[in-house]
Amino acid sequence: MTNTVLHKAATRGHANHGWLNSYHSFSFASYYNPERIHFGALRVLNDDTVTGGMGFGTHPHDNMEIISIPLEGDLEHKDSMGNTAVIRKGDVQVMSAGTGIYHSEYNKNKNEAAKFLQIWVYPNKKNVKPRYGQATLNKADRHNTLQTIISPNAKNELWIQQDAWFSMGNLDKDITVKYNLKKEGNGVYVFVLAGDITVNGQQLQTRDGFGIWNVQTLNIKADSPAEVLLMEVPMTIN
C-alpha cells in the first residue's frame, strides 16, 4: 500500500536570525517536531535566504552528505579540503563530510540576498574520505522533463555516498511527466520550488513538500508553470 506524508509550506519550522531567514522542512536547530525528523535518508531540507555580505562562519560536519542548490545570488564556499569556489543559480554543490570537514558559506554580494536549499542526506557508508564536487547544469535539459542532477554514480561530478537520485524539472502548464523510482525500497520527497503541481492525485503549491513511498511511479502534472525538485532516497537508514 502506498504511503504518503504532506508538509504544507506554512507548517515548516522557521527561524529568522536577521542575516539568515530559514524555513525547515525537518527538525533542525531550535525547531523540533518529533513527527518531522527525517524522510528516510533525507535528514535536512532548509530553504535559506542570506542577506548581503553575511553567511555561515567556519563550522564542522561529519558523516553526512551535504547538497547545496543555489536559487538566487552567489555563495562563496571555503573548506578544510582546500576548496574555494563560488556557486550560483544553475550550479549544484555536493560534499561528503565523511571523517570530518570544516567549511564556510558566505553571500558574495554585499547588496543582494542569496537564496539556496541546504540538504543533508545520511550516507550509506561512514567515515569515508571527505570529498567535494560542483557542477553547472544546463537548465534547458529539464524543460518539460526531469533532469537527474545527483546520483550514486561516482563517475559523475555530482555523486553522493547513498543510493539516492535527485531530479529537477521546469514544467509548462498542463505538462505531465512520469518518474520511475530507481531502486526498490526507496521513496521520493517532492519539493515544489515554484507553481502548482499534482503528484499522484495530491495537489501541491509553492514550497510544499510531499513524501511518497511503497510506489513505483510518480505522475507529475503542472497545474501552472512549475519548478520541482525530486529527492529519491532509501526509506531505511543503514
In helices, the fraction of residues equals: under 10%
Poorly predicted regions are none
Question: Helix/strand/pairing class, anyone?
Answer: mainly beta
Main sheet: strands, sense, barrel: 7 strands, antiparallel
- Give the N-to-C terminal Cα separation: 23 Å
This entry's quaternary arrangement is: single chain
From N to C, what is the helix and strand string?
EEEEEEEEEEEEEEEEEEEEE
> How many helices does DSSP assign?
0
Rg from Cα: 17 Å
| Integer average pLDDT | 96
Strand order of the largest sheet: 2-3-4-11-6-9-12
The rough form would be described as globular
Percentage of β-strand residues: over 45%
Number of strands: 21
